[in-house]
Design brief:
The chain has two domains: 118 residues, 3-Layer(aba) Sandwich (Rossmann fold); 173 residues, Dihydrodipicolinate Reductase, domain 2. It has nine helices and 19 strands. The strands form three sheets. The protein has an eleven-stranded mixed β-sheet. It has a six-stranded parallel β-sheet with strand order 3-2-1-4-5-6, sandwiched between helices. It has a two-stranded antiparallel ribbon with strand order 9-10. Strand 15 and strand 16 form a beta hairpin. Helix 7 packs across helix 9. The chain is globular, with a radius of gyration of 21 Å.
Length: 356
């Protein structure tokens, strides 16, 4: 059982509260910190958890394993500092600070405490976790480039860096943005009922790590828009993965192709719950859903996974799930993508304090 508390009660906090409510055998929410009495009453009624007005008040009544900071970007650094001041582990939502100055200041204040992890879940999404496992096995040899067209900025950068195995190397970022008409019928709040094309921007960036490279391609609202597919390509020294296809050299004259296969129950005449069971490759399971039976989406599985990994880390039963230094580097590069696209010039990422 993983017990945690949450600072914040908005849209992002609901992801954590919803998972805990859906899997009470795996997660316990000790409390939610929200700043107004009205909101505290609403949270307590909706989620059935204690609500507090401050971290001090929470910790006088409860002692969770860690605290999730789920607040807007500008408020995140101070929320992290507040938790660390109590010598409590904190899992910060992404990004940990809104800008470069904020990242540097936050690292200066709390980086040395070893108490801060970040809720970057994309490498834990089942498909990406399966691809990552094959990369680590060396199925396509040494990874040399990763192309991501699915999610934005620091999430995409975390996939690129994680799959390449890139650390805190100096990097050069180049980017362009172009605008084109595209219908945008679905967003976070649901279907709009409007299929009229709008002018939406696409940003394409290259990240040169000096020997390896990332290619970033994102269109406004690509997360939700059903008219834009999601793609990932991982190229290596003896093969590549393109989404769920894998080609590699079995011997010097034998290229072979395989696929990642999802066992998804509840489809057609399968009468089990609609659920992901595992992902296999060439007849062997390379990813098994740690929450099988809970009938959750891939994103829910990934978020639940990082919550459990955070709990294991606080108990000294597992490695850190995503250290603050990694998240700072991801967002530093994502900010460079924005800067390069606006300025039309290359932006160089140097060594920062967290690279030490």
């Amino acid at each position: 059982m993983t017990a945690f508390a949450v600072i914040g009660s908005g849209r992002r906090a609901r992801f954590f509260l919803r998972l805990a409510k859906a899997m009470p055998d795996r997660f316990l929410v000790n409390g939610v910190v929200t700043r107004t009495a009205t909101r505290a009453s609403e949270v307590a009624a909706e989620w059935g958890v204690p609500a507090f007005r401050s971290v001090d008040d929470l910790l006088r009544h409860e002692r969770p394993s860690y605290i999730v900071a789920s607040v807007p970007w500008p408020a995140m650094p101070d929320a992290v500092r507040e938790v660390v001041a109590h010598r409590m582990p904190v899992l910060a939502e992404t990004p940990p600070a809104p800008d470069v100055a904020g990242l540097r200041s936050l690292w200066s204040d709390v980086g040395g405490t070893g108490l801060v992890q970040v809720a970057e879940q994309y490498l834990l999404m089942p498909g990406h976790a399966a691809r990552h496992a094959l990369v680590r096995e060396g199925v396509i040899g040494t990874p040399t480039s990763v192309q991501v067209s699915s999610t934005h900025l620091y999430h995409a950068v975390s996939l690129i860096r994680g799959l390449l195995g890139t650390g805190f190397e100096v990097a050069e970022v180049r980017a362009i943005t172009h605008t084109a008409p595209l219908a945008n019928p679905l967003g976070f709040d649901g279907w709009t009922g409007d299929g009229t094309p709008q002018q939406l921007a696409t940003t394409i960036a290259t990240i040169d790590f000096g020997g390896t490279m990332g290619l970033y391609d994102f269109t406004d609202n690509q997360w939700w828009n059903p008219l834009r597919m999601r793609r990932i390509v991982i190229r290596g020294s003896i093969g590549e993965m393109a989404d769920d296809r894998v080609v590699r050299l079995a011997d010097p004259v034998t290229p072979v192709e395989s696929r990642l296969i999802r066992r998804q129950t509840g489809v057609d005449l399968n009468l089990e719950l609609l659920d992901l069971k595992h992902i296999s490759f060439d007849g062997r399971v390379i990813y098994r859903n740690p929450f099988a039976g809970a009938a959750r989406s891939d994103d829910d599985i990934a978020v639940a996974d990082i919550l459990e990994r955070m709990g294991a880390w606080t108990r000294q039963e597992g490695p850190p799930p995503y250290p603050l230094a990694e998240a700072c580097q991801d967002h530093l590069i994502s900010l460079a993508i924005i800067e390069a696209a606006k300025a039309g010039v290359a932006v160089t990422i140097g060594k920062e304090a967290w690279a030490g």
